[in-house]
Amino acid sequence: MTTPMGDNALHELKAEVEAELAMAESSHPEEAAGVPVTEWLFDPADAQREEVGLRSLLGAVESLEADLRPGHRFADPSV
Question: Against a cut of 0.85, is the pTM above it?
Answer without folding.
Answer: no
